[in-house]
Predict the 3D structure of the following.
Amino acid sequence: MGEQQMLDVGFLGLKYKNPLLVASAPPSMDGDHMLRAVKAGWGGCISKTIALDKDVYPDVRPRLAPVRTRGGLCGMQNIELITVHKLDWWAREIQIAKSSDAPLIVSVMASYDANDWQEISRWAEKHGADALEMNMSCPHGTVEKGRGMVLGQNPDMVENAVRWVKEAVQIPVIAKLSPNVADIVPHAKAAEKGGADGISAINTVLGLSGVDVYTGKVQPDVKGRSTMGGNSGPMVRPVGLRFVADIVQNTKLPTSGIGGIHTWENVVEYIMMGATTVQVCTAIMWCGFDIASDWKRKIETFMRQQGYSSLEDVRGVALKSLGRFEELKVDENVVPIVDNNKCTACGGCVTSCRDGASAAIRLERRAVINKEKCIGCGLCTIVCPSGAIQISGETL
């Protein structure tokens, strides 16, 4: 079976050569970007969010800030708005994007007004959108103007906005939901009740990337001022996986998973959590469109090795192992074991276990674990740089 057949996926009646979609963001800022993305191997694109001309504002400079650990980048904050271009400009760009052989989803946004939502949605359908993604989740900038997350945090508003759009167009409608809620299920069910054909989740997580301790300025520094922004990148993946699982288990809607996808394994994780497609932004911004071909090749190799013949075989398999805490069993026989061939005697596990667990590890020529003192927390497996320590079901 060839790569195209193995990775084929259907989403909202649209056929994609693979599940990798470019999210609504800077990498889909215009027709040229979207056309190049498809040529580089991406399954399709969601345009940067388009709005009525009255709702378009300029971006500030700079508008991005890193979130770093000592090991490098783990995330990024943006205070970028939706498109800075008006509808006449986008009419041309959509046609450029449509010249590819991939479906085009157009992202739209409006304030909580039926006329505005229906006007922008009809415009997008008229100009060639194969589906719409309703951005009700952008966590900054648009909120002050009564759009974005301010809608997505209110289930009644989600339901009404979706219903308005569904009344206005014939093409599929996706509700893009916000992670900036305690529980996404009521919002997902509201979208479903309003008639949404699918859900995208998550958008960026509201927060602050950090402070320059030498200047005392919040980042990004825009002429001495800053604001809360949307955080993305690997650090938000646990949030994205959580909410995708919640949506898939509590609605009947196909879901496009978003959030912290930075490797081919992350793509598989989201599909195993029930996502039909995945959307990527930050990894493209850091590494470029060319990552798609490598990811596709590795996903296909993985599927062959694991005996999967299609993505449908993969979808949702991890949900079988997800349950309530009360269902978990206490097994005091679970202990870590050390592979002496991999252990470099760096001592990192000794320090971590001493100060963060039960002081059960000592360093001889290699790490040695006192199984009677070990509490089986797994901290040593996390900090070991060489992967020499693994959890085992070995009996004490």
Observations:
- The CA atoms of residues 358 and 374 lie 6 Å apart.
- The radius of gyration is 23 Å.
- The chain has 14 helices and 20 strands.
- The chain has two domains: 3-321, 333-392.
